[in-house]
Amino acid sequence: MMSIIPIDLSKIKKENTDKEILRVGIIAELDAVNLYEQLAENTDNKDLKKVLLDIAKEEKTHVGEFQALLLKLDKQQESELEAGKKEVKEELKVNI
After folding, report:
1. Helix-helix angle 46-73:75-92, to 10 degrees
2. In whole angstroms, what is the distance from residue 90 CA to residue 66 CA?
3. pTM value surpassing 0.85
4. Burial level of 66, CB count in 10 A (0-12/13-18/19+)?
């Protein structure tokens, strides 16, 4: 589990700091999703499982919020995300 920032933000160029903060936020939220889903998988308590999965869902929304801001700030990230979707679509021959 991530409890400290995995990079030294003081070593990042000022124009890239916000992008790196958003990436760290995405990492933290995905880490939380994994944690809550694993915990939910390991309980037989219906109420606890329901709450954990609901919280995991909220964390996924947070990932989307951070990603939306990141794509606004980093056009290269946006184009590479689209390129990745295209590659998967072509490789799997599916519409995504």
Report:
1. 120
2. 27
3. yes
4. buried
